[in-house]
Amino acid sequence: MVTLKDITYAQKVLQGDIRKTDIFYASNILCDNEIYLKTENLQVTGSFKARGAAYMISQLTEEEKACGIIACSAGNHAQGVARAAQKKGIKCTICMPDGAPISKVSATKSYGAEICLVPGAYDDAYAKAVELQKETGATFVHPYNDDLVIAGQGTIGLEILEQMPDVDAVIVPIGGGGLLAGVACAIKGMKPDVKVYGVQAAKAPAMYNSFKAGELQSTDTVDTFADGIAVKSPGDLTFEYISKYVDDVCTVTEDETAAAILMLLEKQKIMAEGAGATAVAAAYYNKFNLKGKKVCAIVSGGNIDINILNRVITRGLVMSGRRSTVTLALTDKPGQLNEVAEIYGKLGGNILDVYHSISDTNMAINSCFLRVTAETRDEAHIAEIKKALSEAGFEIIS
To answer: 31, 283 in Cβ contact below 8 A?
Structure first.
C-alpha cells in the first residue's frame, strides 16, 4: 500500500508543476461547525485530478511513454492526463461518456488529446478504454484505482496539515475513491487523531454502500448532476484504503449539493461543480455531527458546465427558500390577482411568474388555480406570505 513516504516523495516531484491551493475560512457560511475550504477548484485544469495524473505520468519509463497513454474520465481526470501528456510530449487518448459536459470535453481537446466519446456513464467509458488499451499497448492511466495516482492525490492531505495544523476533521468527495484514499492515508499517517470523512452523491452511492456493508459493492445506475463522482463501481484498491483509514462516509442529496454550490458562489465567490460542492454540503448540513469543530471541506473541482449552472442555481434557491411557488384555488372573478399581488408586495415578496388555469375538470365552473412563483428571503418568509394569503380567504393548495 501507499505510505506516507510515497506521498511525501510525490509532493516533491509535483513542486513547480501543481499549485499548492489555498485554504481559507468560509466566514459567510454559517452553520454548526467552522467550514474551511481547500480550493482545489483553483488547481491547474480546475480540479485535484491534475495531481494524480501528473505524478503517475512522471513515473513512466521511456518505453511506456513511446507507446502512448490512454485514460477514461467524465472530464476532470481527462484534463489532468491530457495536460501532463502534452507537457511530456506523449500521445494521449481519452475515453469520455457521451454525456460529459461540453466544457470538459472542449478543455480536454485543448490539451491535444484524442477524444473517444462512449455512450453511457463513466463505467462504459472505462470498458472502452480497457478495450483500446489492449489493442494499442498504450499505458492505462486509471483515474483512481492506482497507487501512483492515489499518492499524487494524497499530497492534498499533506498541504492541509501544513496550512491548517489545528484542523479537527477533513471531508472529502468520493467517486471512485482515489482522492479520499490518498488524503486519508496522508492525514492518518501524520495525525491519526484528525477525523477523515467521505461524502458521496445519494444517487451514486457505491462507495457509501461498500463502506457500510464492509465489502465492495457496485450500483446498476447512477443519476446525479455531480458528474465528477458519478461512478457505478468504486476501486478495490481505494476501498482497501478507505476501509483502513476513513472514519465514516455519508451521502448528500441533489438539492443539498445545489444549495452548497449556491452558497459558495454567492457568499464566498467560489465556483464549484457538483462533485466539488458535496463536501461543503456535508459540512453545512452537519452529516457527521461536528458541532463547534474546525472542518476542512475539499472543494475538489470547479469545472461546472455553464449550461446547467442556471438550473443548479434555481434548485439551490428553492432549497434555501429564496424562491417559492404557491398554488391557490380561488373564485375566477376580477380583482383576485391584484389582491394576491398586494399581499406579496406588502410582505416583500417579488413575484417572478404567474400562471392562471381554468382547465382542470375537477374544479367548479367559476373556479381557477393561480400558481405564483416569487423571490423570497427564506422558509420563514414563505410561511408568513402563506399565512397572510390564508387569512385573506385564499385556499392554499401547495
So the answer is: yes
Name the percent of the chain lying above pLDDT 70.
98
8 Å CB contact between 156 and 48: yes
Q: Which amino acid is at 108?
A: T
Evaluate whether 273 touches 301 at the Cβ level (below 8 Å). yes
Strands annotated E in the chain: 23-25, 34-39, 69-72, 92-97, 114-118, 139-140, 169-173, 195-201, 248-252, 294-299, 323-331, 350-357, 367-375, 395-396
3-state secondary structure of 381: helix
Partners of 69 in the β-ladder = 92, 139
Mean pLDDT of 145-169: 98
Give the three-class secondary structure for 361.
coil
35-36-41 Cα angle (round to 5)? 120
Burial of residue 8, with CB atoms counted within 10 A of its CB: 0-12 exposed, 13-18 middle, 19 or more buried: middle
Widest CA span in the chain: 82
Active site residues: 49, 300
Residue whose C-alpha is closest to residue 5's, from 145, 147, 140, 143: 147
Backbone dihedral angles phi then psi of residue 146, each to the nearest 5 degrees: -150, 135
DSSP3 helix / strand / coil % (the chain, rounded to 5): 45, 20, 35
Distance CA 108, CA 113 (A): 6
From the CA atom positions of the chain, what is the Rg in Å?
24
Long-range contacts, 25-28 (Cβ 8 Å, 24+): 26/264, 26/267, 26/268, 26/280, 28/267, 28/268
DSSP line for 168-203: -EEEEE-SSSHHHHHHHHHHHHH-TTSEEEEEEETT
Alpha-carbon span 253 to 230, nearest angstrom? 13
> Strand 34-39 and strand 23-25: pairing?
antiparallel
Please, are residues 49 and 143 in contact by the beta-carbon 8 Å criterion?
yes
Q: Does the pLDDT at position 205 exceed 80?
A: yes
Confidence of residue 88 (pLDDT cuts 50, 70, 90): very high
